[in-house]
Amino acid sequence: LCKTLGISPEEKFVITTTSRKEITCDNFDETVKDGVTLYLLQSVNQLLLSATKERIDFLPHYDTLVKSGMYEYYASEGQNPLPFALAELIDNSLSATSRNNGIRRIQIKLLFDEAQGKPAIAVIDNGRGMTSKQLNNWAVYRLSKFTRQGDFESDHSGYVRPVPVPRSLNSDISYFGVGGKQAVFFVGQSARMISKPADSQDVHELLLSKEDF
Hints:
By secondary structure, the chain is an alpha+beta fold.
């Protein structure tokens, strides 16, 4: 590596994933896969001097096919599916803030100022945030936060579905579990997720766009 990149043998450095997981001899085979993005740093917690980009390749989860008509079904029953779509986005914030020690803040903003861009819905919370790996897995269409296993690192790791109670901040409001991505693309044409893990200095941003697809 020193020879290929022209690094002095005396210089100390580390190689990490975008989630700042250090690559070692013990975890190399399970961590370094084709297409994975790696950082070459002087230390694991080195401040990044500029933004970096990571390409995400994934196939749609099979539930995309088997549950793709869910919104159409509820709409055909005479119900307005828009509240269900908003509930999905808010539900993500409820579970993300479920273990906050202090105040849980969840904001819903409807943006219609054309000077600031196209109309948008913004859901903002002060939850624990997601690593790049968790954000990557959020992008896997129809991969439920309750069914992620194996190589998938959940964006709600350790989250336990609360005991059913009247709808409140301590309950799940996602009645149908249709998934954040499907909810986003029912409402609009693109999704931008910006997240900062509570124990990290890095800010991760994911953009899913119908136009790009």
